[in-house]
Design goal:
about 290 residues, alpha+beta, four-stranded antiparallel sheet, 9 helices, about 30% helix, binds S-adenosylmethionine
Amino acid sequence: MINSTVTTTIILSRYQTKPILEARGKNAQTVEVSLDLGLTVSQLELDDDGVRSPTGQLIMWEELEKIDKHEVGCFVIDSSGMQKVQLYSEEMSRVYTLMPTSGPPTMLISGLPMHRIKGTDPQKDTRSKINTVKPVTGLVLDTATGLGYTAIEAAKSAEKVITMEIDPTVIEICRLNPWSRALFKNRRIESRIGDIYDEILSFEDSIFSRIIHDPPTFSLAGHLYSADFYRQMFRVLRSDGRLFHYIGDLSSRSGRRTARGVVQRLKDAGFRRVRSRKDAFGVVASR
Ligand SMILES: C[S@@+](CC[C@H](N)C(=O)[O-])C[C@H]1O[C@@H](n2cnc3c(N)ncnc32)[C@H](O)[C@@H]1O
C-alpha cells in the first residue's frame, strides 16, 4: 500500500515496461516511452543497470521486470522505491487499485473496473457519455467523481463543473493518477467530498444545464437510482437542461431490467424525452 502524500514523478505499468524490455533485447541505446501512463512520452537511455529518465533518475532492470509481470497494477517509482498504486478505504471497507489499460487507467473497486474497458478504453467510454448531452455548456453537475474523467471532459466546454465524490480515498488515488491532474488544476472544476444523495438538497432549483450521473451499479448504490433522487435531479436541472444517466450494458438482461425501472422513475419525476443510448450504456433525458 502506498503513502498517498508521495509526489509522483514516474508511474509505470506493463504497457510501458514492455517496449523498454524489448529495446534491451535489441541492444538499443534509447527508447521512447511514457513515464506517466501514456499521457506524455520521454526519451530514456538504456545502460547496464536500467533505464535513465531525462532528469537522470535510474529505473532498475529488476524494477521493470517486476512491473512487467503485473497484469493489473500501476507503480510509482520515486526516491523511496517502488510502490503499487493501491489504497484501502476505511470508510467503505474497499480496496482501490489503479489499473492500466491501453488508454488512461481505470480504477478497480474491490476488483471491478470503474469504466468500460472491454473493446474500448476509459477515454472513449468517457467521451461517449459526454457526447450524449453535447453541447456541454453552463454549469454542470457530475454526481460521482471517480477518477474525474467525466468532470475533466465536461470542463473542456462547460463554464463550471461541480463534481461530488463520497470517498476521500478515491480522491487520493486521483492525486496519484496523471490522467486525473486536471481535477486539481482546472479552475473550472470544483471537486467536493460528500454523498450526492444528501448534498443535492443544498443546490438551488434550476441551476444546472447538464447533469452527468455515473453512479456505481444499482446493487451497490440503489438510492442513486431512486425516485426521490431523480426528483432532486429534476429540481436542480434548468428548464432546457439535459441529463445523462449511466446504467450499464442495455443489451444484457440485467441492464434492460435496470433501464426499464430507471426510465419509468425518470418519467415519474417529470423528465421528458427519456431515451436509451445503447452506445453510451445509459439513457438521456430532458427537463
Ligand atoms: C462509476 S464511478 C464514476 C466514474 C467517473 N464518472 C469517472 O469519470 O471516472 C462512481 C463513483 O461514485 C462514487 N460514489 C458512490 N456513491 C456515491 C455517492 N452517494 N455520492 C457521491 N459519489 C458516490 C464512488 O466512490 C465512485 O468513485
